[in-house]
Write a structure and sequence with these properties.
- This protein has 260 residues and is α/β, with parallel strands linked by helices.
- The chain has a single domain, classed as Rossmann fold.
- The protein contains 8 helices and 7 strands, in the order βαβαβαβαβαβαααβ.
- It has a 7-stranded parallel sheet with strand order 3-2-1-4-5-6-7, with helices on both faces.
- Helix 1 crosses helix 8 and helix 3 packs parallel to helix 4.
- It is globular.
- The N and C termini lie far apart (40 Å).
- The model has no long low-confidence stretch (mean pLDDT 95).
């Protein structure tokens, strides 16, 4: 339906979980993929695995998205390797738990620095090459937590994810004259390495609360990211789309149970 062959794609936080799933979908679709994260060993491992996924090239880049200078260096390295940037998937984020009553200033700053400021810095750093390509695409990984739902212990995380959407809507207005679109994906419960560590009983309980009856996969997020990055999605901008198997729809758990 659409063609991503040869597109140059930057995916931050791409060494595992949702980020790796996004990068893998783009690699299979024939894009050149830059895998961005902070740890050199993890970057090299993820880039090596992605090399075998498709005909495009893979580049591993070490960067700290909470640092604007590091983001600028990341962008320059990708442009030097691929000749430009067509797509930025700003996915990197952290999710430490901190109850409101005991949350420290450092706890709050750490989450906002990565999840919110890091998103803005990554977009700023890639802005020139995204403009130069003539049809730039930005895809943010937000969450249902914050924009739609809440969860105890993650008020700072939820705030950062809701703030991403506020940034996105104004950025969409500023970037439209540059022919750049920016949209956000709001994942629900996605089966990542971290979630799998919680055990089968925990996973079954989570799945039971989802109308689709199952947890999502990182590829589910990647498929939507690939569409939003396509030429065909050029008339979509400033939008937030939940990918949650219907998780946010029921009024109560009873609504998820099969009707008798």
């Amino acid at each position: 339906m659409f063609d991503l062959n040869g597109k140059s794609v930057v995916v931050t936080g791409a060494t595992k979980g949702i980020g790796y799933g996004i990068a893998e979908v783009f690699a299979v679709a024939g894009a050149n993929v830059a895998v961005v994260a902070r740890t050199a060993e993890e970057v090299a491992s993820a880039a090596g695995k992605l090399d075998a996924c498709g005909p495009g090239r893979t580049l591993g880049v070490c960067a700290d998205i909470a640092d604007p200078e590091s983001c600028r260096a990341m962008s320059a390295e990708v442009v030097a390797a691929f000749g430009g940037i067509d797509v930025l998937c700003s996915n990197a984020g952290i999710m430490p738990q901190a109850p409101l009553a005991t949350m420290t200033a450092a706890d709050l700053a750490a989450v906002l620095d990565v999840n919110l400021a890091g998103t803005i810095f990554a977009v700023q750093a890639c802005l020139a090459p995204l403009t130069a390509c003539g049809a730039g695409r930005i895809v943010l990984t937000s969450s249902i937590t914050g924009p739609i739902t809440g969860y105890p212990g993650w008020s700072h995380y939820g705030a950062s994810k809701a703030a991403q959407l506020g940034f996105m809507r104004t950025a969409a207005l500023e970037l439209a004259p540059r022919k750049i679109t920016i949209n956000a994906i709001l994942p629900g419960n996605i089966l990542t390495e971290g979630l799998a560590e919680m055990g089968e009983q925990y996973l079954a309980g989570r799945a039971a609360a989802i109308p689709a009856g199952t947890l999502g996969s990182p590829a589910d997020i990647g498929h939507l990211a690939a569409f939003l990055a396509s030429w065909e999605a050029g008339y979509i901008t400033g939008q937030a789309i939940a990918v949650d198997g219907g998780q946010t729809l029921p009024e109560s758990f009873d609504a998820v149970r099969p009707a008798e």
